[in-house]
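Q: Could you fold this chain for me?
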Amino acid sequence: MRYQVYMADADLSYLSKLELMLFRDYGDQIELHLITDSNYLDYLFASPQMIDILVISDSLWKEEYKKQLIPNLFFLNETETPVQTEVRAVNIYKYSSVQNVIHTIGVALKHLIKGSAGKQEKKIVLVYSPQGGCGKTTLAVGTANALYRLGNHVLYINAETIQTFLGKENDDIWGNRALISALSTGRFSKEVLEDNIVKGEVDYLRPLQYSLLANGIRDMHYTSLIHSVKELLPYDYIIVDTSSEFNDFKAQMIAMANQILIPCLQDEQGAAKMEAMLRNLNASDKRKYVFICNMYRIGEKNLLLDTPIWPMIHYKVPYRDENTDGKAEDTNSGYMEIAYSLV
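A: Sure. Below is the predicted structure, expressed as structure tokens.
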């Protein structure tokens, strides 16, 4: 099977550089189409097309193209400011290195190839930050939604000492006594787990109405819960949202997780908290530890710049001043970029 990859930009010499590297790495697995003419794009997209990946200049994109329902869409941006659009897309700064552009597209290709080859290994993704109020839970749920859009079966678990779920606090969402009993002992059955999971695009484990302390539960027992979910239930990704204190439980979860998402803000507290974390945690494994500047505001003072953290930042998720009614914006290109990096 050859995957259909389309690349559209007015600069043919630029596309030729991408073409050379894509053929070098994936030549026997792709059909590559280069387009420089906007009129031809209009003609092409006037009828349904089978496109696996579209890489298109932001200046050539038109909103009517979204009817094609392209599963992997990448915008080549002339500036570092991401394109805001209703479609799910990943923004790539055109004038970053060609290697960086190819790496980003390659992640999507590898995901397609893995999907056709069979089931992937189940992964645990820990979302942790020493900084409170940095948008950690919104990031966790947004990334979970983006992973779902990529065709994965995803479970979200809130393992904070006091738990909520994005404005859904009502009598119907709380975990039952069987879950509390299992968390108290660290022993879980498939039946108890299934009874306490709410199904949706992204499934979630029912949170606890009262704190772990009030329920007589040690947070360490969440490691047993997560291990049981991985062994007993058919999820591709388990997203674990944790509170900001660093303790034995966090150390165990860091060891257990395949990857750790670490969001922070660009303010004074963010810089101080992240520097303190690095004094206590060896985060040199760049594949495992994914640092994210969350709610990033272009043009505002960035106090991370003069710290060891800034060179470690993988992604900048832009700030959005809008009411999402508790639903994470999985269309945000930052979440999609993170999701692609996890697959």
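A (continued): Residues 98-117 form the longest helix (20 residues).
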